[in-house]
What does this fold into?
Amino acid sequence: MTDLSQNAARRAIKTRWMLLAPALIILAFAASGPLLITLVYSFLTPGDYGGVVWDFSTDAWFNVFLQRDIFDDTLGWSDAHLSIFWRSVKLSLLTTLACLVFGFPTAYFIATRPKQHRDLWMLLIIIPFWTNLLIRTFAILELIRNEGTINTILIALGIIDEPIQMLFTEFSIILGMVYVYLPLMVLPIYASMERLDFRLVEAGYDLYATRFQVLRRVILPLVKPGVIAGSILVFVPSLGAYVTPRVMGGGNQLMIGNLIELQFGQGRNWPLGAALSITLLAIVMVALLAYVRVAGKEEVQHG
Amino acid sequence: MTKAIKAQSLRKVYNGNPPVEALGSVDIEIEDNEFFTLLGPSGCGKTTLLRLIAGFEHPTSGRLEMFGEPLQDLPPYKRQINTVFQNYALFPHMTVAENIGFGMEMLGKPKSEIKATVDEMMDLVQMSEMADRQTSQISGGQQQRVALARALAPRPRILLLDEPLSALDFKLRKSMQLELKRLQTETGITFIFVTHDQEEALTMSDRIAVMSNGAIRQIGGPRDIYDHPADRFVADFIGDTNFLDADVVGKDGDLTALRLTSGKTITASAHDDATGRVTLAVRPEHAQLATSDEGLLTGQLREVVYFGTDTHLHVDLGDGTTFVLRQQNSPDMPANATAGSTVGITFPPAAAQVLRD
It folds into this structure.
């Protein structure tokens, strides 16, 4: 009896491992492996024409945050890198916020439509995903560039005399990223919203809560998992965004992604690129930990 | 005296293809401090009427007043009406105490007052030890009590109850019925109770409105409704009833003479415009067995079904209908009738009710 059940248990464990195997192999080779290589590269010396020379060095890590003045050899903070880090974090936060501001009402709207219409609305949200990122970004560029659709129309209408400089600003980067990542905010919020029991909303109204109070005290706490997931899904890729700041920022509004690309490309400094990549990872992790802690704490306060 | 709720030609049509008329021109007056029940099968419009009163739905046409004030344009959060929902709709992210205090909090009451009322309410529904529990950690009966306390805490003038007992098991339902009745008497709040359970309606209500197909069929006290059902639907829906065909043969003051299919004539009270072929309703417990000569009806006893408290006798009247009698059992009663014998059925004139079509 016990032998039999032990055998069964052993078999169950074996089956579980075998089912997990494909995922584990992919994780090992596609996630942990490259990450490990990147970590190793960040402690090596750059080769003359790209690549790495197998000599241990901490120069790359040194250069991530610090720089030596080329005239008097004094040590100082690497202003260029720090300002790029700061811009990346700032633009990602603003993008996340904008996605939340636009995505939450959108998700609410869709979740409150009749069931048979919801799929159609979701389809409209997802359709842009079917198009190449680069094409979508250039479409936005066409809209907002100085000779673009918006400026042309405004000038033709006589509302403005000179085109408004929208392209190659932080605004244009945020606009591009919001456009690209908005579905990632809408989808998880919609998923929690769809599971929301709208009778609870009625109960809120019934108990003298105004529309705003129902939103704040009933709906928001209940769809918070969706809001958290959506924010993470938008914030993380925003932080490492490469295409959007490249096209919309015009090369003078670098974000971390562009900086890293620069090191592996023109800069021919792979170790620095690797160190910057790890730094990006660290920033993401710190941001997520802080976010989850703040979001989780509120939950405790609300009971 | 102003009515707690007064509805005039209240109508609700849901958009759709085709549009659904959930409530068709309903007039109703509900007194203050009354335990009023809306009774009917599912889809009869009782929940729609409740939702109109609560403010979750907007009437298509008609007037709705609460204590003389027009109600139809007020949002639910401005109505001094609270609801006990069918599924309780307790906020899952709040504790028992927070749920109960929610309404008062939204009304902007001071913290001390909220706490005092919440304590009082939890005492009232015997949930004091559960104050800090999550709503997912308490049983269905307890959730029901919390829902009740939550709706009572802001001291509404009218409490709406949407089949709040339907999810409870039999024993709990019985005790909650009595408890609800007690609470209504103690608080003096007007209760409007929706149910499809006729027994529940008869036990608790001061007055009952029987509804079907978006219309009110009869309004009256439990005895009224049970003993004098207005039409076939009410007679059929509430309790068990025998339907008999009869012909009006004459009038004698308030009483109407009726000839039964057996040829015998009885007198019964009937509405004025009863003529020709009418339907009589006789409750099973109001009829007795008699000898076949004495009986108003005669037939063959087909089945004797013992139910513990009473015995049901199924009598085949010979014309394809079966008449059911219900006899209360007592220990010294002999088992007088056996299946297969020919028996007579008799009932007092007051037991026969002429139905409107």
Summary: Chain A has a mean pLDDT of 89. The radius of gyration of chain A is 25 Å. Residues 65-302 of chain A form a domain with the MetI-like fold fold (CATH 1.10.3720.10). Chain A has twelve helices and four strands.
